[in-house]
Structure formats: structure tokens, C-alpha cells
Amino acid sequence: MFTDTLSAASVRHPKPPNTTFAYGTAGFRTLGSLLDSTVFRVGVLASLRSAKVGGKTIGVMITASHNPPEDNGVKVVDPLGEMLPQLWEPYATQLANSDNLEDDVRDIVSRENIDVAQAGLVVVGMDTRETGPQLLRAAIDGIEVFGRAKSFGELTTPQLHYLVRSHNDPGFGEPSEDGYNKKIVGAVEEILRLWNIQEPLEITVDAANGVGAPKLRNLSSNSIIITIVNSNTQDKSALNVECGADYVKTNQKLPSNLQPRDHQLYSSFDGDADRVVFYYADGPRFQLLDGDRIATLLASFLNKLLQQAKVEAKMGIIQTAYANGNSTRYIQETLQIPVDFTPTGVKHLHHKAQEYDIGLYFEANGHGTVLFSDDFIDSLKSAQSCSPEGKRALKTLILLTELINQTVGDSISDLFAVLLALRIQDKTCVDWGRDYTELPNKLFKVLVKDRFAFKTTDAERRLVEPAGVQAQIDALVAAYAQGRSFVRASGTENAVRVYSEAASAADCAELGARVCQLLE
Ligand code: 16G
Ligand code: ZN
What we know:
By secondary structure, this protein is of the alpha/beta class. The chain has helices at residues 3-11, 36-52, 89-97, 101-111, 132-143, 157-168, 177-194, 212-217, 245-251, 291-309, 325-335, 346-353, 374-382, 388-403, 411-424, 429-433, 469-477, 505-519; strands spanning 28-31, 58-62, 71-77, 121-126, 148-154, 201-206, 224-229, 266-269, 276-282, 285-289, 315-319, 339-341, 358-362, 368-372, 441-446, 455-457, 462-465, 484-489, 496-501. Strands 1-3-2-4-5 form a five-stranded mixed β-sheet, with helices on both faces. Helix 2 packs parallel to helix 5, helix 10 packs antiparallel against helix 14 (388-403) and helix 10 packs across helix 15. The radius of gyration is 23 Å and the shape is globular. It binds 2-acetamido-2-deoxy-6-O-phosphono-alpha-D-glucopyranose and zinc ion (ZN). 2-acetamido-2-deoxy-6-O-phosphono-alpha-D-glucopyranose is lined by residues 25-26, 65, 344-346, 363, 365, 367, 490-493, 497.
């Protein structure tokens, strides 16, 4: 019976006292020094999951994304590169907090009717944090109780998603980091050739001192010239500090170590390279081009290609409550594309996007991707176009389905998609910035006694509990031109977030501060 192996291994990974863990929006996330037992147990769960799905390959990613250097985290990736199904999240929490691991494993095995002998491969990756290597060993120890582990060492989160998918679906690409690189560079170079673009794509990227730096470097070629700042992965205390996508988006300012030339495009990745934001300087003015902008740029580019190729597609954009109100208006009124809202977190957005032939989802923070349905890809491949322009558009659309990561938001593939969309349409970053003007907006964090007391509805745009608070927010919002504000509990931190926007920056700050006061 497995109990011997399990107990022998779990003794090596004791649970810290007085700590409870919860599998949230992005898996488990807390101080890296507290996570050894949790990551071990997630390893056990990942091989149970592999057994449950008939021995398919599952993934485990060790990362805390944009969080401070001392944090770490872990999440499980399903066979096609999706997040662990929500139905399994309670099992992860159950195992992480278990005081009797054998009993709890047996409970899950029987509830899910799992034949543990079916457990197959679990692939593991980590970002560049100091606690990564030790946690990676803990994951492997857990995986090997039932299954087999294969470590890929340092990876971006989207690379790990790619590797899981390509292990299960050989048509997706070669199951190696090299295969990932070839797929991306191949698509970029072919698109450049199709459009007869001789000059290389060029940009400076702030890599948050994270894993995106070495991985981007691997992609340099004659047609891709990338300068990287904040690329120090050796100094473990530098990760995400005063740099990276989250810093730039939250503070709406430049990262350290970047002296911008006016009207030139720059970009920032987060610590595990699944988010990207862009920006440029216009004298003292800083123009951020965030996830909302990426969605609008790519949607209008795709629309143009569809028109040229004379192909019909049902296209939709999925946003969260954080999307700037003017981006939503621009999408609905100017681009005339339907917008859906879902709660924050990739698992919600991704599912909604799968309802379209082309579903674009981007969180304002820069996490997102474009999903093309299998049927739609097939229809592109069988479509005929007689004009050279139509043929080129068709070919470009097919190549974009390869370039853009179909499993999860990927800063690397999103970066190239954006650079190509701009170059092919002969659009500068300043033109992009002029598509619409953001409403001033601000994000606040409020520490409350119990964040779980805050329950929302309508894609997190309205509070249902604590009773009465939403009516007070409504009354405040009504006093400001183009005012909007919402309150939601963070899924990754012990805090409540408040978002406000209004026609002027002063109004926006005042509205947000007044909503925060309601919560104290
Ligand atoms: C996680 C989510 C991210 C979301 C963020 C919100 C995934 C892979 N990541 O990082 O999409 O924007 O949480 O954090 O789903 P919050 O709940 O603390 O505001
Ligand atoms: Zn991230």
C-alpha cells in the first residue's frame, strides 16, 4: 500500500505549526519559508490528478509571480495547460492543512475513485526565487509517492503551461523549452517575411529581475533585438522591487533603471513573465498601455485581418471590473465588439473566452491572451482566398494562433503579438495611446479584520455583504462625474481592494478615499 511511502516522505516535510493554507486564485501563496510541506503535498495531489485523468501529464509551477522576493507559491496545471479545476481546489486545501495525510489522501482517492497505479508524469518548473530549488525538491518528493517527476528547473509560468500541453498533445509543439522557443520565433519570423518587413523588431524590456530575462535572451535572433533592463536574477532580493509590470501598473510610473527616449515604446514583465504592460514617455507625461490597451490593439488588428481574408468570426473581449470604463466604451462603441465581464483571475476569464471563435481576455494588470477555437483554426486552414492580400491575411491569422500562447497569458508571446500588430499596421505607440483616453483611476488596499466577510456579485462589481455597504458606495459614486468604484476581497493577500475612477484625478482620489473610509 502507498501509506508507507507516503508517511516516509511526509516526515521529511513537516507542516509548520499554527499556519493554515488556502488554495486561492493563483494556488497557494505565502512566505516561501512556510511552504515546504504544502509544496510536497501539492506534488502528491498532482500525481493523484494525473491518475484521475488516466495518466496524462500534469504540471506544478513554483512561483509567487509579482509578489515580494521572500514569498513563494505553487499551483497545479491540468493536461491542456488550464488551471486545476475548481472542484479540486478544496482537495489541495485539505491536503495542505491535513494532520493525517494518509487518511486525507485515502479520502480523496475514494471520493474521486482514483486508481493510483495510473499516475503518470508531472512536470515541474520554478521561477528564480531563493526558496525555489528547495521547494522544487519537495514537489518532486511528493510527486514520486505515486507518479514520475520531470524537472525543467527555471521556467516562466507560461512555458510550464506550454510544456504540460505539449506532453499531452504532440501537435501543439515539441515538449521542450527549445520547442517553445522554436514555435514562437518561427511564427514571428514567418509573419515578418510575409509582410516583407526587413527591419528587426526592437524593444527594451524591464524583466523585473526575474525569469523572463534569461528566457527572452534565448529568443534573440536577427529579426528580434531585445534590450533587457532589470535582468539581475542573481540578486535574489531584487525581484519585482521598484520594477516589473505590477510596479509600473500600480504606481503608474517608470521602473528603475530605465531612461526613456520620448515616444519610444517600452515594456515590463512581471516576476514569472505571465504579465506584460507597455508604456512611453511624452516629456514629463507617462502613458501606460496596459492590458485593456493590449486587448483593443489586438482586437482591431485581428478584425482587419479577418476583413482582408474575408473570414467571419464570432469575436468577444472579456474584461474584469478593473478594466478602465473608457476602454469598455471604446470596445463597444468604436470597435463594436461585445464585452463580457468575469471575476478576477485567469480561470474565470479563460473559460468565458472559450465561448468565442476568437476570445480575447486581458486583465488591466497585463495578464491575458487570445484564444482561437479549434473549429475556427480548422476553418482558417481550409479557407481559400484568391487575392494576394487575402492569402497573406489568412496566413498571418494562422501564424498568430501559433504565436499567441493558447494555454495562458504569456508576456513573451503577447510582446511579439503587440510589436507585430503595431509594425504591420504602421502604427506608433503614440497612435496607440490616442485610441482612447483612460479615465483617471486608482487602486487602494485596505486591511480589514475579515476579508471573507466581503462577498460580491455581478463579476465583483457589487458587494452583497456586509449588508448595506453597497448602498453607501452607490451614494458616494453618484456624486462624481463618470464615477465608478467597487470593493472586493483579494484572492492572494489578506486585504480588501478598492478601485475608483472618475472624470478627474482629484475626484477619483477623493471617491476612492471615501469608499475606503466606509470599510474601516
Ligand atoms: C492572481 C491571478 C491574476 C489576478 C490576481 C488578482 C491567475 C493566474 N493570477 O495573480 O490573474 O489579477 O491574482 O490578485 O489567475 P488579487 O485577488 O490579490 O487582487
Ligand atoms: Zn505573474
